[in-house]
Amino acid sequence: MKPSEEQWNRWLDGSLSPEEAKAMEAAAEEDASLTADRAFFRQLSADLKETIPAERTPPFADFFNSHLQKRIRDLQEEAESAAKQRPSWWPNWFRLSWAAPLAAATVVVLTLMQIGVIGGRSGSQIVYAYTPDDSVTARTEFDRETNAMIVRLEGMEPLPDGFDLLLADADDAEPPFLVESPAPSQETFVFVGPQPQYPSDRPY
Amino acid sequence: MPLQPSLRSFALGLVSVACLLGTFSTPAQNAGEPKKNAVAKKETEGTKKLWGALIYAVDEENAKRPGFADADAELTTILGKAFEKYRHFQVLGTRSEALFKSTHSWVAPSKELCVKFDSKGLTKDGEGVKLDLQLWNRGEAIVKTDAILEPNSPVFIEGPRWGKGRLLYVLKLQEGGAEADEDETLD
What are the pLDDT digits (tens) for A111-128? Predict the structure, then answer.
């Protein structure tokens, strides 16, 4: 069996066991081509040992060490710099010195325009809405298209289809159900039909 | 954690602009207010009125109530935009009441569903009116509001369902006071 290159190397280095070395010698003597190979590798090993020393001290060791440390520091700084330059949610233009105050002013102006303090919105407003009945909620919204303030009441009980709204007579000059402490000389308005019971502050 | 410089600038800018606007707007408005209001009050007390209409809104033509007129085309268009569920609007009644400060009054085309209001005076520009506005239903206040009514800007109140439709109130500030035409419609 022809020995492998690894076995040749170990043989030349003298790292084969005695049994392996004996087997290598026997194989080389049996095969003429192996004899030539053995001669070549022996010569190569001898040349290498003459040319390259087994140990070598690097020149300027201190300079080499300081240069290596500097290179390590440079690499660390480059990594930190790259981390800082990662894209964030904060827009790049916002880092400009004038952009933050300008954005702040825009927010204030838009807010004031929205609530009607500036900008000349002349529509009606519901400043505050309160529903005494907890089951009823009032939602207010300003409709720009109709320039109207809308109060949407939700949760009110529906009125039955036949419910009498007790509509006032359109021909009345004054609402007949408004009793405004009539003076003797004034005409007294009276109800026509059933009179509902209302709290005392109701004017009729 | 310290704020980023840009965020700090933004916050400072926000406060600065708010303070600046407050500084320039408030004294200027207050300066002329007493005299202007006094003049405006003298000139307009009782000369504005609150016009109100009780509207029955339905979607289907056959759900309309007999005996009541449809709202005019302009009011129908406006209400149709504000209350998109409904296409037909009938006027159940209208009322208008002159606005006098420190007295409460009613816009009550219906005795059951009506609007109570207290005038709290004119707005700073003398055009609008501040009101304590309430909707009453069957003897109880349903909603109480602090409102500012401006000319040409009505207030719509979406009231309860009634039968197949819904009752709405249209409230509008009008010039003219007690001598104005009571049946005047929405401008």
Answer: 777 665 665 557 899 988
Instruction: Determine, for residues A178 and B93 on separate chains, whether the beta-carbon distance falls below 8 Å.
Output: no
Whether this model's pTM surpasses 0.90 = no
**Substitution target from A127, A167, A197 for chain B, most B beta carbons within 10 A:** A167
- Binned at pLDDT 50, 70 and 90, residue A90 comes out as low
Check: complex ipTM more than 0.90: no
Domain that holds residue B12: 5-42
Strands (E), B99-153: 104-107, 113-122, 129-137, 140-149
Distance between CA atoms of residues A53 and A60, nearest Å? 19
Pick among B7, B8, B9 to test the A interface (most A CBs inside 10 A) = B9
Search chain B and give the residue with CA nearest A95: B6
pLDDT of residue A178 exceeding 60, the answer is no
In a domain, B10, yes or no: yes
B29: amino acid identity, one letter: Q
Give the strands of the sheet with B113-122, arranged side by side: A125-130, B140-149, B129-137, B113-122, B104-107
If asked whether residues B13 and B56 sit together in one domain, one would say no
Task: Please indicate, yes or no, if residue B165 is contained in any of the structural domains.
Answer: yes
